[in-house]
Description:
Layout: E1 15-21, H1 22-25, E2 30-35, E3 43-48, E4 51-56, E5 70-74, E6 77-81, E7 88-90, E8 104-105, E9 107-110, E10 113-118, E11 122-123
Antiparallel strand pairs: 1-10, 2-3, 2-11, 3-4, 4-8, 5-6, 6-7, 9-10
The structure holds FE2/S2 (inorganic) cluster.
Domain Rieske: 19-116
GO molecular function: 2 iron, 2 sulfur cluster binding; metal ion binding
InterPro entries: Rieske_2Fe-2S (IPR017941), Rieske_2Fe-2S_sf (IPR036922), Sol_Rieske_ferrdox_dom (IPR054716)
Amino acid sequence: MASGSVDENTHNTVLWRLLGPVTELSKKQCRLVYSALGFNSDVCLIFIKGEFFAMDARCAHAGGPICQGDIEEADGILQVFCPWHDYDFNIRTGKSQTGLQQEVYEVKIEEERVYVKHASPLSLLPFPQNPKS
Ligand code: FES
């Protein structure tokens, strides 16, 4: 759930993860969503042309911040361009013309709320660090 808390029982199980209301999440084209599994599992939620998409937030090439990329449509295909080396990724399939594959996730809307199918709890806020003793 989008509360920032971590439910240990739902780690590593692919479940529908509630992110929040459509009205709120549709206000930004790209939004970083935090994963309880950490930095490399964060998700980029994209809202464009009335539809939500979700893909890994770190580029499959060298970890660039996909959420800061430009989104363009060419030949009817929506693509995000990674800001680091400008590789293209189809936001629906995650495929790049370079041959790389960005992980994408299913998104659904239920009762005006956005869900992403993911293996870890997701949150719009960073998860608290594990306390060190
Ligand atoms: S890190 Fe994304 S294109 Fe290189």
